Amino acid sequence: MFPEHRPRRLRTTPAMRRLVGETSLRPRQLILPMFVAEGIDAPRPISSMPGVVQHTRDTLRKAAVDAVNAGVGGLMLFGIPATRDAEGSGAIDPDGILNVALRDLRSELGDATVLMADTCLDEFTDHGHCGVLDADGGVDNDATLRVYAEMGLAQAEAGAHLLGPSGMMDGQVGVIRAALDRAGRTDTGILAYSAKFASAFYGPFREAVDSQLKGDRKTYQQDPGNVREALREIELDIAEGADMVMVKPALSYLDVIRAAAEASPVPVAAYNISGEYAMVEAAAANGWLDRERTIVEVLTSIRRAGADMILTYWAAEAAAWLD
Ligand code: PBG
C-alpha cells in the first residue's frame, strides 16, 4: 500500500542532491566565443544578442583576460573585417583583423588559456558564403580548401592553439592538418566543426558578424534531420586528423551530441549558439524565465547529453557563478 522504493530520499537536502548529482558543470568546460571588429573605436552592441558585443582590439584584450580570470576553459575568436572581397583575402592576411587579434591575445595571455580561431571565410567574403565561388555561383569545395590551408597556417602563426574549421567543406580538416605539419606546426590542434547543421538558430550570429549572405548554406551544412550523416562527418574528420569534434547547434541536437559522445574517441564539444542564447535572453528580459536557472539548466543538459565542453556566450558569466 505504501511504496517500497522512494527515490525522493536522495532529494531531501541540498547536500544530498549535490552528493548524488550525475552531471558536473565546471568553468573549465566552457569556451567563450568572442567577436573583434576592424575599424571601430568603441565596442558595438549586437542587438539580437543582448550583452554580447563586437569588440575593439583593446576591449577584446580586457574582456579576454576577465574571462580567463573567471576560469573559462578557452576562447574562440571571430573577426569582422572592415572590407570584404570575393576570396575573403582578409582571412589570410597576417594583418587581417582576426590574425592581429590572435597575436594580441596570445601575447597577453600566453598559454594561460586555450586560444581558438574560427577557420572559415564567411566573415571575410563579400558574398557571405563559407568558401569561394565557382563560375556558376556555387561554393567551390576544392578551391576553398586551398584558402583554408593558408588561413589555418596564418592563424597558427598568429598564436592560435586550436583551429576551428567551421565551413563544412569536404576534406577541410585533412588539408589544414597537412599544411600545419608541412610548416612544422605539429603542436597546433584542430577542433573540427564536424556535425554542423543548416540551422535557423544562427540568425543572431549573422548580425554579430555583419553577414553578407543571401540565401542559405544548405549545400554544405547538414540537413537538421540527419544523425547518421553526422556520425559519418565525425568519423571522416577524425580520420583526417581532428583532435576534437563538435556538434552544432546544441539544444535541438542533444541526441546528435549523445551519439557523437558514444562514437567518438576524441573529446566532443557542442556549440550553444546565438539563437539559443537569444531565446533565453529575450524570455528572461520579459520576465518569462528565471535567467540564471535557465542558463544553468541549458548548459547542464548539453553536458548530460555527452558534450565534454560547451561553446557558449554565457561562458564567462556562468563560470563566475559555478565557481
Ligand atoms: C561560420 C560560423 C557560424 C557560426 C559559427 N561559425 C555561422 C553560420 O554557419 O552561418 C554560428 C555561431 C552562432 O550562431 O552562435 N563561420
From TrEMBL:
<comment type="similarity">
    <text>Belongs to the ALAD family.</text>
</comment>
<keyword id="KW-0456">Lyase</keyword>
<feature type="active site" description="Schiff-base intermediate with substrate">
    <location>
        <position position="196"/>
    </location>
</feature>
<comment type="function">
    <text>Catalyzes an early step in the biosynthesis of tetrapyrroles. Binds two molecules of 5-aminolevulinate per subunit, each at a distinct site, and catalyzes their condensation to form porphobilinogen.</text>
</comment>
<dbReference type="Pfam" id="PF00490">
    <property type="entry name" value="ALAD"/>
</dbReference>
<keyword id="KW-0479">Metal-binding</keyword>
<dbReference type="InterPro" id="IPR001731">
    <property type="entry name" value="ALAD"/>
</dbReference>
<dbReference type="GO" id="GO:0006782">
    <property type="term" value="P:protoporphyrinogen IX biosynthetic process"/>
</dbReference>
<feature type="binding site">
    <location>
        <position position="274"/>
    </location>
    <ligand>
        <name>5-aminolevulinate 2</name>
    </ligand>
</feature>
<dbReference type="GO" id="GO:0008270">
    <property type="term" value="F:zinc ion binding"/>
</dbReference>
<dbReference type="InterPro" id="IPR013785">
    <property type="entry name" value="Aldolase_TIM"/>
</dbReference>
<feature type="binding site">
    <location>
        <position position="206"/>
    </location>
    <ligand>
        <name>5-aminolevulinate 1</name>
    </ligand>
</feature>
<feature type="binding site">
    <location>
        <position position="217"/>
    </location>
    <ligand>
        <name>5-aminolevulinate 1</name>
    </ligand>
</feature>
<feature type="binding site">
    <location>
        <position position="313"/>
    </location>
    <ligand>
        <name>5-aminolevulinate 2</name>
    </ligand>
</feature>
<comment type="pathway">
    <text>Porphyrin-containing compound metabolism; protoporphyrin-IX biosynthesis; coproporphyrinogen-III from 5-aminolevulinate: step 1/4.</text>
</comment>
<dbReference type="GO" id="GO:0005829">
    <property type="term" value="C:cytosol"/>
</dbReference>
<keyword id="KW-0460">Magnesium</keyword>
<keyword id="KW-0350">Heme biosynthesis</keyword>
<dbReference type="InterPro" id="IPR030656">
    <property type="entry name" value="ALAD_AS"/>
</dbReference>
<feature type="binding site">
    <location>
        <position position="233"/>
    </location>
    <ligand>
        <name>Mg(2+)</name>
    </ligand>
</feature>
<protein>
    <recommendedName>
        <fullName>Delta-aminolevulinic acid dehydratase</fullName>
        <ecNumber>4.2.1.24</ecNumber>
    </recommendedName>
</protein>
<keyword id="KW-0627">Porphyrin biosynthesis</keyword>
<feature type="active site" description="Schiff-base intermediate with substrate">
    <location>
        <position position="248"/>
    </location>
</feature>
<dbReference type="GO" id="GO:0004655">
    <property type="term" value="F:porphobilinogen synthase activity"/>
</dbReference>
<comment type="subunit">
    <text>Homooctamer.</text>
</comment>
